[in-house]
Amino acid sequence: MILSRSVVRFSTDGGRAACRATDHTGAQSLELWQLTPDGPRRTTTVAASGEAGQTQLVVLADGRTLHCGYRPGEQTVTLVHPDGRSTPLDGDSGPLRFLPAPNGSGWLATVLSPLGDGTLVSAVLADGVRREVGRLPGRAGGAGVSGAHLAVTVLMDGVPTVVRLDPATGRCTPLLAAGDPLSGTPAHLLTTGGEHVLLGLSVARPAGAAPAGPEHRLAVVSATGPARLMPGGTRLPGVTRPIAMDPGGRVALLTVVRGVRSELHRIDLSTGVAGTISVPPGVLAPVGGCSPDGWWLPFSAPGQPCRFAWLPPGAAALRTAGEPAGAAGWSGARVERLPGAAGPIEAVVYGPDWRGSPGVVLALHGGPDAHWDLAFDPFFQLMVRAGLTVVAPNQRGSTGYGPAHADAINGAWGDPDVADVLALAHGLRAGRAPHAARPVVYGTSYGAFLALLAAAKEPQAWSGCAAIAPFRSAAALYPEAGPAVRNLIDRLGGLSDRSADLDAVIDRVTVPVLLAHGQFDEAIPVSHSRALAGRLSAAGRSVRYLEAPGRGHSVLRASLADPVTASLLAFLADPVRQDPAALEPAGSWAP
């Protein structure tokens, strides 16, 4: 039984797809799919290894797929054939970025790699050998195939610019060429379709116009003509993400995130008119494919693991294949509004009513610029099967609720968001019987940072704290972090004096703590959990530390057969009565 699908990718013609899958035993596989007029059909399943979060897939129109894995110092590349055969190709020390090949090139894929302040572009030829085909004048951002060319966002003189690379000549030119009325306008590549590129532009408003600042607009650029600016904005409330465009550059699909829910809209790029597509309650992943048979998107719901959804040409409702939600016995979820420190907080709740449940887990998401939604979560399902209720709130700092909600933590990490977490804990306690167990606070990544802060600030509010891949503070993380994490810290003001520091308060945690971290975490170095575990142990606190050998930032697995997952679930069910031996799987490190 498949519990999760991730790294979903489509061929450029929209007729094929591939993804990583995990079943109920924790076994991981690569699935190859054919997308037909009768719906999606899985054609091949082969065993897969390595972290799914460190995997890239490139799907060819003939069904072959490049499976590109990475662990520190080693990039592996394997060509998987439709009949299940695998051919190892030349690897590298990495990390490399893999993209589809331009149409008609005969390549297997395109590779982008940093080169000084720019980017080296290479072709993966039919025999697996890489050959340089060009260079970009900056570090690569969003990228895609535009017919026989590549289109890539780079930073030029401080301005985001989309350039077009001709692999036949190696020539690189701005997509908005000199003479185009929009030339020089800050632009980001959003998606491609056929020879067309969909751009997001920051267009200057007329002097004196309100509101002040640039206006965000969509524009389509073809291989032969100037940019075509879509009339007006999208006029869609919420966080809007274009995910696919038809080969003619006429229509695009956009997902809109509004709180925990996903909406789907089909927009006419010549008129700006958007039509709403009927979608069951759930979540659409921000990726899609377009073929003559329709549009294809990954979809999941609280009681339904990820599967391919299909929007036939002209249809007004999304079709989801497979069993209906809940058919396999998975728990559904409901949305509740609970009291926060500055107003109601929306939360996704799984399992029995928290007011009478024997155990409640307050689950905090990572990010911080993220949010809980109505996607299938295999670990939450395991918690429910253990008799627990999961309350997953979108406290201040979460996306999907407008700028004020998301920006509340800018320059104040661990301040308003922790205030909301503590207010939620008080509300949960007030709604339960006087002698009911206090909730356990659980978080991953940034959520783990918040969980430990909440346990330090009010230890009496909790029965335990589980923190997966926490960091000590943004200031401690910054010197060790990669460019993406540093950019996030800069963008969200993590280095401000108002941002919290666990080193200053960790000794105040008095409840039982479980820490877990992946040995090869690429986002938050494992040294942060080691240091926190050491501090708690030296202070005489009840702490267990699990270090997962060979794993990265994604520590947990979707199966009780995994010792880290099983240990965490046992802790959440009863953080006080734990056998320490059960919390020390072979290969872990403990202070």
From TrEMBL:
<dbReference type="InterPro" id="IPR001375">
    <property type="entry name" value="Peptidase_S9_cat"/>
</dbReference>
<dbReference type="Pfam" id="PF00326">
    <property type="entry name" value="Peptidase_S9"/>
</dbReference>
<feature type="domain" description="Peptidase S9 prolyl oligopeptidase catalytic">
    <location>
        <begin position="378"/>
        <end position="574"/>
    </location>
</feature>
<keyword id="KW-0378">Hydrolase</keyword>
<protein>
    <submittedName>
        <fullName>Prolyl oligopeptidase family protein</fullName>
    </submittedName>
</protein>
<dbReference type="GO" id="GO:0006508">
    <property type="term" value="P:proteolysis"/>
</dbReference>
<dbReference type="InterPro" id="IPR029058">
    <property type="entry name" value="AB_hydrolase_fold"/>
</dbReference>
<dbReference type="GO" id="GO:0004252">
    <property type="term" value="F:serine-type endopeptidase activity"/>
</dbReference>
